Amino acid sequence: MDVKCCIFDLDGVIVDTAKYHYLAWKRLANELGFDFTEKDNERLKGVSRMASLEILLSIGKVSLSEEEKVELAAKKNAWYVEYISKMNKDEILPGVENFLSTLREAGIKVSLGSASKNSMMILDNLELTRYFDAIIDGNKVSEAKPDPEVFLLGAEELHISPEFCVVFEDAEAGIEAATRAGMRSIGIGSPETLGKATKVIPNLENSDLNLLQF
Ligand code: BG6
Ligand code: MG
């Protein structure tokens, strides 16, 4: 097996934070006077905070100044942080902790590759921080997925060439970012949306090192 590093997206791969993002965005939409459905929320997965706000405002046909947008994004984030601050280990998705532990035992490096600026708090609340050799998140990158920056920085920090890295992702933009980084990818979800991944599995339940045989 030639895999030396596994890079994990956070939201939707390690933990289901989409429901909290949804609650906070919906609250903001309602305050602005329009509705925001769970189907609308699908469009925000993997998308950065400011880009998500742009999509939300376009759904509500609301136009605002840059200053107002920054204010609303901060408001949404304060609500989101309120929700995620109550999260604990029980919310880790099935199979994740066991797989992280298997990777470490096998000497395979583990990195985070997430767009979120709240990733440290989430990993700490889930008690998963100690599994990660590198943490690359929204605070460290300037380009959003599908740009490969977030994954390339992880490989660079661990001094591992991209060809030996495998990315775990639930978003189409994340799979594209992995491909553009020259890495293999494992899509977590349905083959319909993640068909471009090297391999697609429904979740990480019962995963072992066989998953890294391509
Ligand atoms: C991604 C989520 O991981 O992070 C997006 O899939 C989210 O929904 C983005 O908008 C940014 O997150 P945060 O926590 O920095 O607002
Ligand atoms: Mg995700």
TrEMBL record:
It comes from Clostridium manihotivorum. Belongs to the HAD-like hydrolase superfamily. CbbY/CbbZ/Gph/YieH family. The gene is pgmB. Mg(2+) binds at D9, D11, E169, D170. Binds 2 magnesium ions per subunit. It comes from the Bacteria. Pfam families: HAD_2. The active site is at D9, D11. Transmembrane segments: none annotated. This is Beta-phosphoglucomutase. The record marks S114, K145 as: Important for catalytic activity and assists the phosphoryl transfer reaction to Asp8 by balancing charge and orienting the reacting groups. Substrate binds at residues 9-11, 25, 44-49, 52, 76, 114-118, 145. GO terms for molecular function: beta-phosphoglucomutase activity; magnesium ion binding; sugar-phosphatase activity. CDD domains: HAD_BPGM. One of its GO terms (biological process) is carbohydrate metabolic process. The keyword Metal-binding applies. Its cofactor is Mg(2+). Keywords: Magnesium, Metal-binding.
